[in-house]
Amino acid sequence: MAEAKTTLEIVADHRISRDASAPLTYPFAPPTDYGEMVEVADGILWFRMPLPFSLEHINLYLLKDGDGWVIVDSGLSTSMVKDLWRKILKDTLKGAKITKIIITHYHPDHMGLAGWLHAETGAPIHMTALEMLTGRTLKSEGSHEVPDEVVSFYSRAGFDDEQISFLKNMGYGNFSKVVSDLPVGYVRMRGGDEIKIGSRSFKILIGSGHSPEHACLYCTGEKILISGDQILPKITSNVSVYATEPLANPLANWLDSLKMLSQLDEDVLVLPAHNEVFLGLHKRVDEIAQSHFRRLRSVMELCATPKTGVEAFGALFKRKLKGFDMIMGLGESLAHLHYLEKLGVVARDESGDMTKFKAVGTFDKNTL
Ligand SMILES: [Zn+2]
Fold first, then answer.
1. pLDDT digits (tens, 9 = 90+) for 240-292
2. How far apart are alpha carbons 17 and 286 in whole angstroms?
3. Cα(215) to centroid(ligand 1), Å
4. Is a pLDDT exceeding 90 seen at residue 150?
5. Which of 116, 245, 260, 330 is the most buried (most CB within 10 A)?
6. Higher pLDDT, 23 or 150
7. Residue 163 CA, distance from chain mean position
8. Strands (DSSP E) found in 150-274
9. What is the pLDDT of residue 143?
């Protein structure tokens, strides 16, 4: 068995630096309307579907597969997105066969219409097991009152009465409202699998930290990476701790995954699920890893005196958060605190009404 890594070795591993010189560039003008196609490589079409959030679109892709097409990610289950899909299937693809529906991860903007598209086209859904099982579980739980356990998770992390009532009013299990019914069966994808699509072969690369077993599709021959939410050029994917796994350390998984992506060539064309298709993978990996390390340093300094997850916001966000942003913000804050806790440089104190974290030990902050 390999020897356990020391704290410094773990951090050194996560301090990714590829000395990337190439800046990020965006070789294609994005689609100007929902459902409009932009060909980014021979037989690979990029288009967008609407999202009712501040992030107003998701990028989806169609890959030519012989006489048919493969769909990558599906969009949220709303009547508007279904109408756009009907138009694409009939007018753009002229009723051609859909051979596969590949879903990168279970989040509703990606998995939302997988079941509906399967019912419409008969194509099998391809997903990794953890993503399918997580999505299927959330779908079958349905929506209901927020469980006491969840309320306790947020109040112990520092939510005040107003934030707790926002949480309760929001309800629990809203996932099931924006994800269509799933078929019983699916095709399981595993890391390292090779999937043949037309003349191309795509290798399945697995990332984690944003979701449990996120699939990216990498075409080695042409250096094309369909990255889902595993790397985005302009925004950072949410890396969060939730009540469903309150002791999780997703930031370690996320940094491991960035490291994995940094092993690919610098001139890979990246097809992300949000923002624009881009070049400059190494540069972007560096930027994201460094931003997490900056935040880890700030959290560490702030925790010179004990802090709750909410009190650590000051080290992470410039603006004051409210509403749903509080939930996302807390998840991010705990992700950074848990990373430091697992390194042994921050300790948790559960003795009071709230969980507090305090910087401990003699860890040299300059190495973080
Ligand atoms: Zn996502």
1. 999 999 999 999 999 999 999 999 999 999 999 999 999 999 999 999 998 99
2. 6
3. 11
4. yes
5. 330
6. 150
7. 25
8. 187-189, 194-197, 200-207, 214-219, 224-228, 269-272
9. 83
Distance CA 186, CA 174 (A): 23
**What is the number of other CB atoms lying within 10 angstroms of the CB of residue 365?**
11
Q: How far apart are CA 213 and CA 289, in angstroms?
A: 20
Rounded distance, CA 139 to CA 111, Å? 11
Q: CB within 5 A of ion ligand 1: which residues?
A: 107, 229
CA 204–ligand 1 middle distance (angstroms): 17
Instruction: Please report the domains of the chain, with CATH numbers, ordered by start residue.
Output: 24-286 (3.60.15.10)
**How are beta strands 224-228 and 214-219 bridged, if at all?**
antiparallel
Report CA(299)–ligand 1 centroid distance (Å): 25
Q: Supply the pTM of this predicted model.
A: 0.93
Q: Would you say 24 and 231 are in contact if contact means Cβ atoms under 8 Å apart?
A: no
> Tens digit of pLDDT for each residue in 151-198?
999 999 999 999 999 999 999 988 999 999 999 999 999 999 999 999
DSSP 107-153: SHHHHTTHHHHHHHH-PPEEEEHHHHHHHHHHHHH--BPPPHHHHHH
Percent of all residues in the chain with a pLDDT value above 90, rounded to a whole number: 82
What angle do helix axes 7-14 and 250-262 make, rounded to 10 degrees? Answer: 50
